[in-house]
Design brief:
OB fold (Dihydrolipoamide Acetyltransferase, E2P); alpha+beta; Rossmann fold; five-stranded antiparallel β-sheet; 8 helices
């Protein structure tokens, strides 16, 4: 028997005049998940979050929480809370007053409010900030106080609309770890909206990738990254080389692909059912490619020669753009793990690249 999801979104659509913001979106989200809606600007992820929160109404479909429709319930009657990019803290209230505000609006007794505010501050590890005002807090502390206020009346769901986007890179990384630990500790389901692929991969139990108002793939982070189901997902999630070609033949999970201008390569771990002659793309992550002045390929590797067209030093790694003999540009990277200044190749240097038959993943047109 199928287990009832905590939240079920069924064929939800939303239109703004001629623009289709959501096109029959369906999702099932389980209790205790850290679930992320990921996609480029305008893909519909924030529209979907607003529908869940009750700030807008769908043109079709239904939203079920604990198997009961919440479409007709106003925002204040839905057992969930939303955290926005700017945290929306009241500057004239102390931290304790900010956190206790939803309870005061609900008519809770003063003694109960004090106890639950203290509990919420302990949950976000800021018990000493109760008497402070928001302008005395750091960006990360403000974010945790916003979470504490959202959790104080124990919602079933917490909706987070790009809450880390205003933070600098180092603080954002720290807060990602904070969010992971906090969600694990309190066990409440998080539904998180972001356009940042790295953030989604780091935080999520599962990710729904959205494009033009539709869900294009839902999976755990490692499968989204390693086994994208389309060119869009492969290109949107991290860095990826897309090598176009035609399927020559398939035997079991092994596929021979004729890459445009490069010739045949073997893919030995394909989950895709391929028809000979069909167009396809080999998705190949830069870290899966070996690059050296001279490569001695193993029996199961594809091997090509080229030259360094460009390079990008990123501190921990250097990304090399290699121009192959047919003019195709291929991204490969090397870790800068040696002591001192690492400098493997210069622009114009001749290099060779190779990758194993199980390094790439096929997607079809």
């Amino acid at each position: 028997m199928e287990i009832t999801a905590l939240l079920e979104i069924v064929d939800v659509s939303r239109h703004f005049d001629d623009f289709v913001a959501l096109d029959k979106v369906s999702l099932r989200i389980e209790a205790g998940e850290f679930f992320t809606l990921l996609g480029p600007s305008g893909c519909g992820k924030t529209t979907l979050l607003r529908l869940l929160a009750g700030f807008d109404q769908p043109d079709g479909g239904d939203i079920l929480l604990d198997d009961k429709s919440i479409i007709s319930a106003p925002p204040e009657q839905r057992p969930l809370h939303t955290i926005f990019q700017n945290y929306a803290l009241f500057p004239h209230m102390t931290v304790a007053e900010n956190i206790g505000f939803p309870l005061r609006m609900a008519g809770c007794a003063k003694k109960d409010i004090q106890a639950r505010v203290s509990e919420a501050l302990e949950n976000v590890r800021l018990p000493d900030k109760a008497r402070h005002y928001p302008d005395a807090l750091s960006g990360g502390q403000k974010q945790r106080i916003a979470i504490a206020r959202a959790l104080v009346n124990r919602p079933r769901l917490l909706l987070l609309d790009e809450p880390l986007s205003a933070l600098d890179a180092k603080l954002r990384e720290q807060m990602q770890i904070e969010l992971i630990n906090l969600q694990k500790d309190i066990g409440i389901t998080f539904i998180y909206v972001t356009h940042d692929q790295g953030e989604a991969l780091a935080l999520s139990h599962r990710i729904a990738v959205m494009d033009q108002g539709r869900i294009v793939q839902v999976d755990v982070p490692e499968r989204l990254y390693g086994f994208p189901n389309s060119r869009f997902v492969a290109d949107f999630i991290g860095k990826c080389n897309l090598l176009e070609g035609n399927v020559r033949e398939q035997q079991g999970n092994s596929v021979t692909v004729e890459l445009d201008g490069l010739g045949p390569v073997h893919v030995c771990r394909s989950e895709t059912k391929c028809v000979a002659g069909s167009r396809c793309a080999l998705t190949l992550r830069p870290e899966k490619i070996r690059i050296a002045a001279n490569v001695s390929p193993t029996e199961d590797e594809s091997h090509f020669s080229g030259s360094v067209h460009d390079m990008l030093y990123l501190g921990d790694v250097t990304v090399y753009i290699v121009a192959l003999s047919n003019g195709l540009l291929l991204e490969a990277l090397l870790a800068n793990s040696a002591s001192g200044r690492t400098n493997f190749f210069e622009v114009g240097d001749s290099v060779e690249v190779a990758w194993s038959c199980d390094a790439g993943h096929l997607v079809l047109e």
